[in-house]
Amino acid sequence: MENAMGFWTNKVVMITGASSGIGKGLALDLAPRGAKLALLARRQNLLDEIVNATRLRGGKALAVAVDVRDADAMRAAADRIEAQLGPIDILIANAGVGTSNHISQLDPIHTANVISINVLGAANSVAAVVPQMIERGTGQLVAISSLAAYRGLPKSAAYCASKAAMSAYFESVRIDLRDSGVRVTIIHPGFIKTPLTAGRDAKMPYLMELDDAIPKIVSAIEKGKKSVAFPWQLATVVRAGMLMPTFMYDWIAARNSFRE
Ligand SMILES: NC(=O)c1ccc[n+]([C@@H]2O[C@H](COP(=O)([O-])OP(=O)(O)OC[C@H]3O[C@@H](n4cnc5c(N)ncnc54)[C@H](OP(=O)(O)O)[C@@H]3O)[C@@H](O)[C@H]2O)c1
């Protein structure tokens, strides 16, 4: 059986949202494991710094400045990655924006932006790589969704909708790809210390350090898990919420306004 180090050796891993937070953390973790990394985001200067950091760790990485909302640009990015690093083995669809607004302050442009980055951006990422994976009969699609996917949370209409859509999208893709050789892994993290959560005053129960979250994501990918949720304490609360009658869920959720 392949050991954890062997799993990543020479795998071409395309990470969207690699300029910051979880994506950057994954890049720095996977570099010394022998993965060939394609790091995608809009901010080229940050990607270049991370490429240098991965090289210092003995890794090989390519920076690709691209907006996940642009389907053609994503397709061109995948072509460039394949030409320079080889066929893409693993896509980690991680690019996303986190928002927190009471519905009274939610404007349609803002909602469209969240949905287009978190949902359509992930779908564009899949579309850029999946035909080649199907043709080769191998590959892995990884979604960085959220525990916010499971039920509506206060002040989070656009974000919860985007993550629920993302998880459902990847679940459908997983079913379509049954027996294709392409695996699909959906990750549902709770709160992690990244620029996305920085500066929030709201309660963030079981807030995790990035260094504690990254190994959970890496392990789930290695094991080819279909779906994982962590930390277990918050995942248990969220799963219990799914079983609650609506009146009870609304009452509890309104009193635990985690996302301000
Ligand atoms: N932190 C948490 O508590 C938490 C919990 C659950 C799930 N998540 C999910 O984890 C993912 C990463 O979040 P994070 O916490 O690491 O946040 P982050 O530090 O703000 O990173 C977000 C990344 O997404 C990229 N991005 C945003 N819009 C983009 C676009 N239009 N095109 C390309 N890249 C884009 C950003 O790069 P550029 O700005 O350079 O483009 C950045 O690299 C998100 O999907 C988030 O929903 C986070």
SSE sequence, one letter per element: HEHEHEHEHEHEHEHH
Beta-strand fraction estimate: 15-25%
Mean of residue pLDDT values? 94
Structural class: alpha/beta
User: Which kinds of small molecule does this entry bind, naming each only once?
Assistant: NADP nicotinamide-adenine-dinucleotide phosphate
Count of extended strands? 7
Instruction: Give helix % range.
Output: 40-55%
Radius of gyration: 18 Å
The coarse overall form would be globular
Largest sheet: 7 strands, parallel
Widest sheet: strand ordering: 3-2-1-4-5-6-7
Q: How is this structure best described in words?
A:
The chain is an alpha/beta fold. It contains nine helices and seven strands; from the N terminus they run H-E-H-E-H-E-H-E-H-E-H-E-H-E-H-H. It has helices at residues 4-8, 21-30, 44-56, 71-85, 108-136, 157-176, 210-223, 232-243, 246-255; strands at 12-16, 36-41, 60-65, 90-93, 139-144, 182-189, 227-230. Strands 3-2-1-4-5-6-7 form a seven-stranded parallel beta sheet, with helices on both faces. Strand 2, helix 3 and strand 3 (60-65) form a beta-alpha-beta unit. Helix 4 runs parallel beside helix 5. The mean pLDDT is 94. NADP nicotinamide-adenine-dinucleotide phosphate is lined by residues 16-23, 41-43, 46, 67-69, 94-98, 117, 121, 144, 146, 189, 191-192, 194-197.
Brief summary:
α2 crosses α7, α4 packs parallel to α5 and α5 runs parallel beside α6. It is built from nine helices and seven strands. It is globular, with a radius of gyration of 18 Å.
